[in-house]
Write a structure and sequence with these properties.
The protein is mainly beta. The chain has 6 domains: about 5-100 and about 115-145, no CATH class; about 155-565, Peptidase S8/S53 domain (Rossmann fold), CATH 3.40.50; about 570-655, Immunoglobulin-like (Sandwich), CATH 2.60.40; about 665-740, Immunoglobulin-like, CATH 2.60.40; about 745-835, Immunoglobulin-like (Sandwich); about 840-915, Immunoglobulin-like (Sandwich). It contains 14 helices and 58 strands. Strands 10-9-11-13-14-15 form a 6-stranded parallel sheet. A hairpin with a 4-residue loop joins strand 54 and strand 55.
Length: about 900
């Protein structure tokens, strides 16, 4: 029997290990030391004073490590718990048990101090406080001990939206009815703003939204399903999808019954915790939920720590690999998405794979200028569009999540290292390609059992560039902390019928070294992933077979989905498309899809519609780049682009080049409001929009640059204006709330130029001079009526200046009256001003009620010393002021007459008699 002898005194701590066959004491001791404390290597070692607390914290694990079955028992601990001393371990803990009711009964008898609670409807998953992990792993029936909900954090904010990168805007242009109508997506993090006008009218379960709302969550909801009501950057991937919220304080999946009741078919998770590399209770739970709800797709952001190294696990310490932010993202049946820059390269901040066991993570990348949060939200929106496309073709039935995932992975554009890699997974998400695959029905479904082989045939025409096929299945959940997560192992193989030639999937090296992880993929059997892909460049014409075999299927039969595509040579413009507008004087990224020789080039031409002909912009554009930057001409026109290569020409849709109108408020009166905007050269008509229940709706077209809204139209608050060219309505400009633009009934502002002066002057700013006849400055009389002081007629400018010099010094009230051509009158707010010669002071109100403030007005910029005494000369109080209008405190003064002595800097003393009532 092995033993550990401890010799502890006031300054030192010694460990003596007596070996037992099969037990490596120095190894076991070192395993539980932090990396900075791995000085325990053999025999005995003086740990020093600092070893005291460390050893005492590690003692339970050290003792446990030397008991029979110790290594298996310690395998029940999550990696983060194994490396942290018991005294420092977080609370509460989450455990997985074989029998929930039996464990809870045992805990009541043997662990009365522990607090045990069931997690949701899963009787086998419990949250427990009051015990250490070491105590828990030794308890009967405990299968795994993990840290409960860690603090999740949002992964960056929305920087910029560009739906052309992942061809989402091309889907909108070609399939305008594909909007996510009738489907629901959930955004799990903090609550988004349900009143945001891009989400308006489509938010479900409003009672779940608690303030403060999250800007990050609102941005994610907008990218997923924004209606574009605010401006073109408010467009999301699925503009008609219903949107729900969920709290990421609970890292486990939401309740399945609640998700089903709400109709959620996609849930977006743009958040993370620290880098975690193991298959924990959360990973297990997400895989279990996908088995329970096979049509529900969970989409996770990969994280924004792409240059970091994992602190634990097989890939510990390898920088720029295995840094996915959260073990829940280790789940197999979900989709993890990394971020790319506008040029398509993987962003430096985007977290990379592999997963803890060598699986491909992330599976996809998408554009995210601010990080992987944005990328995940876009892919969530595209997933909704794929679900709608399938539903509309299959009598209202939603596709399995495995099929949506297969279509997304198969249609993705390869990036970086050829085929799959740990940076971009299967590549850059391509919404247009994915929708095309789903619309054309280029997929198969089936079920594989042990040793069974299902065969699907594909006919490839002559002259094709590539054949690609991807197999995906929703795998049963593995045991927590399993060395590898895969349970049911299926194999994909491609066979040429005429020759018998065979091709295997692309597989990466999972060896834990940076050089190995960066190696290109090789063709071989895949026994790690539940997503496998085969590509074949320049396939010969003929019939091919896709074989799906049950290599190792211990848990019954396994349902699967296979998506494929056959790429013919050619070029397809994706941006700009027909609805798109290029803003004059800016730069725009032109985009296309190219299937052809990598070294091919083309000439890029531009022409305004109705112009004299094509103008060459670039004589040699590399087509494989799939993008080029254009300096947009400063004009207003309909235009086209053309790429010419090898005798073939590829012409873009006709798009608009025009500045977006900026709508302003001329006046906002109770019964009428005026919208106005600047005339845009080359534009003859304008379309005005009003925000309806959920979307901008056409209100009126006009050749004018203004529109009067009557009482019936003022119930709507939001308006936007778009240019109309050759009968085509362009994109609207920024949408405004007409009541919050700082313009009331004609007036933007009316203020005294200086509150105290020898001549009272005012400046007034109007929103418009539309239909105005005159503007009059009025002064209030003592009886409350007003008299005209100065009239300006006609009114030709929105900037007005008025002046007045009453006969006596004092405080006066003014307003401006506007008269229009219809005989209506409009009034500004009332403003006060003081007439005082330089250096003089005045007080009001006088008399003043005791306890009420006395206002001291001084026409000076210097310091003023104020003394108050009664009529017998007895001093009452003194203060110093340095403003033009100041308050003097009268509290505590008895009613009577007082003398206020005022000494302004550089001026003679003034004495004012003040009556306090």
């Amino acid at each position: 029997m092995g033993r550990i002898l401890l010799n502890i005194n006031k300054t030192d701590c010694f460990i003596f290990g007596e070996a037992r066959p099969g037990v490596d004491y120095p190894f076991q001791i070192a395993k539980y030391m932090t990396r900075a404390r791995r000085e325990v290597v053999s025999g005995s070692k003086n740990l020093g004073r600092s070893g005291w607390a460390l050893l005492l914290g590690l003692l339970p694990q050290l003792l446990l490590a030397q008991t029979p079955g110790a290594r298996a028992t310690l395998g029940k601990l999550a990696p983060g718990l194994q490396a942290v001393p018991a005294a420092q371990q977080p609370r509460p803990l989450r455990i997985r048990v074989a029998d929930g009711p039996a464990f809870r009964q045992w805990a009541r008898q043997h662990l009365p101090a522990a607090r045990v609670a069931q997690v949701g409807n899963d009787a086998r998953t419990l949250t427990i406080t009051g015990l250490t992990p070491t105590q828990l792993v030794a308890a009967p029936g405990v299968e795994f001990v993990d840290v409960a909900d860690r603090r999740a954090h949002e992964e960056r904010y929305l920087g910029n939206s560009d739906l052309s990168v992942n061809t989402i805007s091309a889907v909108h242009a070609r399939f305008p009815d594909l909007t996510g109508q009738g489907l629901t997506a959930s955004v799990k993090e903090l609550p988004f703003d349900p009143d945001d006008i891009d989400l308006k009218g489509r938010v479900v379960a409003l009672g779940a939204f608690a303030k403060p709302y999250s800007d990050h969550a609102t941005a994610m909801a907008t990218l997923l399903g924004g209606a574009g009501n605010s401006d073109p950057l408010g467009w999301g991937a699925a503009r008609a999808v219903r949107l729900a919220t969920s709290d990421f304080a609970r890292l486990l999946p939401d309740d399945a019954a609640q998700l089903t009741q709400a109709g959620v078919s996609v849930q977006n998770h743009s958040y993370g915790v620290g880098i975690e590399n193991y298959y924990g209770l959360e990973s297990q739970a997400y895989d279990q939920q996908t088995q329970l709800l096979p049509q529900l797709l969970h989409v996770f952001s990969s994280g924004n720590v792409g240059s970091a190294a994992s602190p634990s696990g097989t890939y510990q310490g390898i920088a720029r690999f295995a840094n996915i932010s959260g073990q829940f993202k280790m789940s197999k049946n979900t989709l993890t998405v990394g971020a790319t820059a506008p040029g398509g390269q993987v962003a430096a901040l985007s977290s990379r794979g592999p997963a803890y066991d060598g699986r491909i993570k992330p599976e996809l990348v998408a554009y995210g200028e601010g990080g992987s949060s944005e990328a995940a939200a876009l892919v969530s929106g595209v997933s909704i569009l794929l679900q709608q496309q399938y539903r509309d073709q299959h009598a209202g039935t939603l596709p399995p999540a495995a099929l949506v995932k297969a279509v997304l992975l198969n249609s993705a554009d390869d990036l970086g290292t050829p085929e799959v890699d740990y940076l971009s997974g299967f590549g850059q998400a391509d919404a247009l390609g994915a929708v095309g695959t789903m619309r054309a029905g280029r997929f198969f479904g089936g079920s594989a059992s042990q040793g069974a082989d299902q065969v699907f045939r594909i006919t490839v025409p002559a002259g094709q560039q590539q054949l690609k096929a991807t197999l995906v299945w929703s795998d049963p959940a593995a045991n927590a902390n399993a060395a590898t997560a895969l349970v049911n192992d299926l194999d994909l193989e491609l066979v040429a019928v005429s020759t018998g030639q065979r091709w295997l999937p692309w597989v990466l090296s999972a060896y834990p070294h940076a050089d190995s992880l960066a190696r290109p993929a090789r063709r071989r059997p895949d026994h790690l992933n539940n997503a496998e892909q085969i590509t074949l460049t320049l396939p010969a014409a003929g019939t091919y077979e896709l074989h799906v075999r049950g290599y190792a299927v211990p848990q019954g039969s396994e349902a699967f989905s296979v998506a494929y595509e056959i790429n013919a040579p050619g070029l397809t413009w994706t941006y700009p498309a027909r609805p798109d507008n290029l803003r004059p004087g800016t730069t725009a990224n032109l985009r296309w899809q190219w299937s052809g020789p990598p070294a091919a080039t083309a000439r890029l031409d531009y022409r305004p519609v109705g112009g004299s002909g094509w103008r060459v912009l670039n004589a040699a554009v590399p087509l494989a780049d799939r993008r080029i930057t254009l300096a947009v001409p400063d004009t207003a026109t309909l235009a086209q682009l053309r790429l010419v290569s090898g005798g073939s020409e590829f012409v873009s849709d006709t798009f608009t080049v025009v500045r977006l109108p900026e709508v302003q408020v001329g006046y906002a009166c109770p019964d009428e409001a005026l919208l106005q905007w600047r005339r845009i050269p080359g534009v003859a008509r304008y379309q005005v929009y009003q925000l309806g229940h959920a979307y901008l709706e056409p209100l009126a077209q006009t050749a004018d640059t203004s529109l009067v809204l009557g009482r019936a139209q003022l119930s709507g608050l939001y308006y936007a204006v778009a240019s109309v060219m050759s009968g085509r309505v362009g994109q609207p400009g920024l949408t405004i709330n007409y009541t919050t633009q700082g313009t009331a009934c004609y007036f933007r502002s009316f203020l005294p130029r200086q509150l105290v002066d020898e001549t009272i002057r005012f400046d007034a700013t109007l929103g418009t001079v539309y239909h105005l006849k005159s503007a009059t400055l009025e002064r209030q009389r003592p009886d409350g009526t007003y008299e005209a002081v100065q009239t300006i007629s006609p009114v030709t400018s929105t900037m007005l200046a008025f002046a007045d010099q009453p006969l006596a010094a004092g405080r006066y009230l003014y307003r401006v009256r506007l008269d229009n051509a219809a005989g209506q009158q409009f009034y500004s707010n009332t403003e006060e001003a003081f007439l005082l010669r330089a250096g003089l002071t005045q007080v009001y109100p006088n008399p003043v009620t005791a306890g009420q403030p006395l206002q001291l007005v001084a026409n000076t910029t210097g310091v003023v010393i104020v003394q108050l005494s009664d009529m017998l000369g007895r001093f009452q109080r003194e203060t110093t002021v340095d403003g033009r209008i100041n308050e003097l405190d009268t509290s505590g003064l008895r009613p009577g007459v007082y003398l206020l002595r005022v000494q302004a800097e550089g001026q003679a003393r003034q004495v004012v008699r003040v009556v306090i009532q």
